[in-house]
Amino acid sequence: MDTALVVGGTRFIGRHLVSDLVENGYDVVIFNRGNHDNPFEDDARVRHVEGDRTDDGALRSANAAVEPDAVFDCVAYKPREVVAATEIFSNADAYVYVSSGAAYGAEEIPKREGITELCPCSDDQLTDDSAESYGPRKAEGDRVVFDAASRGVDAMSVRPTIVYGPHDYTERLDYWIDRVENYDRVVVPGDGTNVWHRAYVEDVATALRLVAEEGEAGTAYNVGDRRALTLEETVHEIADAAGTDVEVVHAGERELAAAGLSGDDFVFYRDYPHLLDTSELAALGWDSTPVGEAMARSVEDHRDADRDGAEHDPGRDAEESVLSILDTL
């Protein structure tokens, strides 16, 4: 495969994917509305076609102009968009849909492709934009991919769990980095052993390319760090990367409630573990970046960026109340 079309391509996962594709010798075209700064504007190796991915006519025009060997769909959020894309790009050697670990509808440890049940998707959820329908919509997109593959389309799905790393506009990890870099004591809900599997963004990009090159049509591939961290381990990895020391303070449900908080107020906290089996992807030759390296790059990027994770902040005053309560016990 020589030519890749990336639907999206300028913000986070797509941005890293474009870089990975260029480094691996692809001619790359990004297709988006141009609403965000294009980091590849001055890179002659990356062309830009402007258009709205919800406009089927614009997608057809891009397909005719580019004739891509591989298509990477980073911004398909509704099943009808996947239906259109699998039809329009049916002649490509690979169509790779970026799904999500949120597509899984059953709580199992670990969640496995083809085994763990996917979320159902109601008629109302098909067109809904809420966070609550995100997993069901991604699951339905997966089912569209499988159906297309049954009709001869070389369509595959990649399911990343929570993605982190440089240029992460969600700022989820930035909240914890900001806490570690600014406070000696960091409140962690529960006993610190909860697991919400995460995936380093550069590894997600590599996985997408590898699935296009080596994956099997009609197959989904989970992506997540080969070493999954507990929340407490995450805080300590950040501290190591930042070159600082921090005390992790565990806060139970009662202490949090006394300060008007709950575990759900803390990003990356999840009561039941969320862990994806990544052996199918590893069988294609994929591996993940060591967590220490990934965290060091994330901390360096945080320091260079204007991000602090404030929208995920449960309130330092409330946390100080929790610390005061715990200090009296």
TrEMBL record:
Residue stretches making up the NAD-dependent epimerase/dehydratase domain: 4-224
Record-annotated membrane-spanning stretches: none
Region entry Disordered, spans: 295-329
UniProt protein name: Nucleoside-diphosphate-sugar epimerase
Family: Belongs to the NAD(P)-dependent epimerase/dehydratase family.
Lineage, highest ranks first: Archaea, Methanobacteriati, Methanobacteriota, Stenosarchaea group, Halobacteria
Feature: compositional bias, Basic and acidic residues: 298-319
